[in-house]
């Protein structure tokens, strides 16, 4: 009879992901839900994909006064 091997569960946060809340407008949620239904992906997957894409393709422009916003 073969042994049943049960691996220890990783501690929370050791999978490279982090959970946090985001507040967004209802119309954006509806758009995400429509894309999720069309692609059969979760809203969470889509948000991750969209954020990753945005972080790879963003550009910071100086404000009108020549200073960076933020």
Can I get a quick summary?
The chain is mostly helical and 70 residues long. It is built from 2 helices and no strands.
Tell me about this structure.
The protein has 70 residues and is an all-alpha fold. 41% of the residues lie in helices and 0% in strands. It has helices at 26-39, 43-57. The protein starts with 25 loop residues before the first helix and ends in a 13-residue tail after the last helix.
Sequence-ordered SSE layout with sheet pairings:
Layout: H1 26-39, H2 43-57
Give the CA-CA distance, first to last residue. 63 Å
Order of helices and strands: HH
**SS summary, helix count:** 2
Radius of gyration equals: 20 Å
Let me know the number of strands: 0
Point out poorly predicted stretches: none
* Biggest sheet character: none
Give the overall silhouette: elongated
- Average per-residue pLDDT, rounded, comes to 89
Strand content: under 5%
| Structural class label | mainly alpha
Percent in helix: 40-55%
List keywords for this structure.
mainly alpha, single chain, elongated, 70 residues
């Amino acid at each position: 009879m073969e042994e049943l091997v049960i691996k220890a569960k990783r501690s929370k946060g050791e999978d490279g992901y982090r959970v946090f809340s985001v507040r967004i407008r209802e119309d954006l949620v509806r758009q995400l839900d429509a894309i999720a239904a069309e692609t059969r992906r979760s809203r969470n997957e889509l948000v991750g994909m969209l954020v990753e894409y945005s972080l790879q393709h963003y550009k910071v422009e100086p404000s009108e006064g020549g200073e960076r916003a933020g």
